[in-house]
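User: These chains co-purify. Model them together.
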Amino acid sequence: MEYEKYWCNSSQHLTGRRQFLGTALAGLGTAAGVGLLAHPLGAGELTKQGKSLMVIWLAGGISQFESWDPKSDVETGGPFRAIPTTVPGIHISELLPHTAMQMHHMALIRSINTTVMPGADDHGISTNAVRAGRLTRTATDFPELGAAAAKALDRDDFPLPGHIFASAGGSGGRQNNAAYLGPKYAGVTIGAKDGVINSVLPNGMTVSVDGQRNSWRRFVNDRFQQRHRSAQTDAFTQSYEQALQLMNRREIFDVSREPQTVQDRYGSGELGKQLLLARRLLENEVPYVEVRHDGWDFHHNNFEFHIHYVADFDRPFSIFLSDLAERGLLERTLVVVMTEFGRTPKINPGYGRDHWPNSWSVALAGCGIHRGAVIGKTNDSGTEVVDRQVDHRHLFHTYLRAVGVDSAGEFNIGGRSFPIADTATGPIEELLT
Amino acid sequence: MTSPNIEKTTEVTLDGRVAHEVRDWVHTSRLLACRVDPTGRFVFAGSTDRTVQRWEIATGNNTTLVGHDNWVRTLGCSPDGATLYSGGYDGRLIFWDAAAAKPQPTRTIEAHKGWLRALAVSSDGQWIATGGNDRMVKIWSSQDGHLVREFTPTNIIDYEAYRTKQIAEGHFVREFAEHPQFIFSLAFHPSSHELVSGDLLGNIHHWNVETGQLVRKLDASELHFNIGDVSHNGGILGLFFGVDHKILSATGLHKQTNALANGQEGVGLVFDWESGKKLRKQERLKNSESSTMWRGVYHSSGQFIGGLSNDIGFWMPGEEDLYYALKTKSPIFDMDLHPNQIDLFTAHFDGHLRTLRLQPKPTSPAAS
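Assistant: Joint model of the two components:
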């Protein structure tokens, strides 16, 4: 990367610029009530033709038995049966009848063992590591998948934040999950309920007056920049321009603009609303979009709760997939259903399942993967992986490769090189197209 | 009905504090249900290994009954003890010759779509009621197994219309959370052809079985909890009439703090049957522990015995707080009283079927 020159003639400002950008944007977000002013500064070295990565994060640990790797005829398997899918030979839990009809868009990885990570059965430790694809990770050591994808898929001309959490509620501020990539690539939360808050001019402020004050701001900034240009002044200037672009595009975040039939199809549940917003963001080529579905930590009454939780996921997820497919978006979007670990084969005395990092599953759909593939296998009782064992580091590589990112590459940040993914592992090549 | 297996059934006093274990039979898988046949000869248990286990009480002889294709959740017996009825998560209702040397299914009915969770037998033995995840309550003839009547709760969407619409739209017919009002519990009134059904949301429906009419609804919604907008917890897990047939206990859980990790306490709600008025709770007010009351029984003394997961609670008639809690070795999911009112059989998670004798231990000569 060729660095721009500043008045002090130092290239080190690149890092500082981005750090400052995040700080400035956060400040502006607070002041203006618009907390999502990321902006691609400089050339993105890994532009990937509008590809996107979409994660549905099932927080708490969905049971692999009650979802992607059912074991119907063994004591560990629980009371749910396996049902066929649209891919001959692939069976999933009967709790997922709608998803079963979309299996031809999907692939399953059934051989995940994350016990390589110390503390793999702890929610926090596992969540941090799985989301960053590293052996271990504190909350700020390494960027999460969303930040890495946003950085790697960055585009100069892209006006929206590259790393968005589509929430069912209101909008929020920027998250701290980009580590050395800088705040620009940290996640921002956009609510399906209210869209981007405070994104219209306040009462009494006309477009004309707003244009005049922006013209004055630009005039003053330009004059100042002529003598004192720096990364900080660039970021300051750019953040305002980004805010204006975002305000002009606020309709993207407004799911009420969808036809009522579409809204009805996605349903009134929170996940459906999030996924509908996510689809709109993917249509607009946001590099990384994530929705979150909380509560999958069923130490008690695992089977009763899975009935409700999986059903709450199943229909909107299947509608989301079919919608992406119908619109052609699945050809440039990888969808991943992630969680931090699986659940124990052993059923505890409260008919719950506890944390189990030894053998669990994730599901994927969309671009860059062989659809209808099943990677790996667990034994008959589901207690261990018996074929093609992988861990979260392989998954991280695989997700990025599927959207065209060379996960063996490096990020160049302020003159320093940072591996995009864990260097000791690689992607699941046989899953990739 | 008299039987050599039944000791005196009158004037049996009860003091839960003297209850002690007298038998411990072990099965290899978790037990979910148990019933003693009305003659007192056998005790049956439903298991997660898809079998029904039968023990002859006098000898301890064990027989395995095979016919279900999923967990066996609920059991009932004909008044003469000749027929056992079992219901499972395979949706099946199976009739068995209870006393046969090797009982085989004499009738298998695909009774419900999805889980069959509850089963009750009318006091005259004429009808068997079943309910489950399809939200339906169905009445079956004990004579020939034909479907006599079926009820759909009237306060919610019409299930058949819903199914028709689903099919027309090309969707799967769901048996699960799209119909969250699963039927959890059933009980026939002991002296009439009336039935109560309890659901996940805390609704108790009172049905006239002969006319098929919904007579009234009782509100036990305090036993239901929402988990966000996604899930539910609790519901009417058991329904039990008092010995005088004048009160009805609905059991379940309350005081939920963390449902996903068993942060809740078992409870019964006592209703006056005639007025439908809520009279009191049956709970553990002191030294409470996390629990769920899946099952209770009324003893002939009028006392209520309730399973509190790892304890068995004893309530005096009319009392809100239990007077004694007996610690168990493994969580209890079902229990039943022997007709002699002296022995209480409990089905446990650890696969054990235990017998508690509700009388003092005999005093040995050495001890005296």
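Chain B touches chain A at residues 29-30, 48-49, 70-71, 89, 115, 133, 171-172, 174, 176-178, 180, 227-233, 259-262, 309, 330-331, 349-350 (CB under 8 Å).
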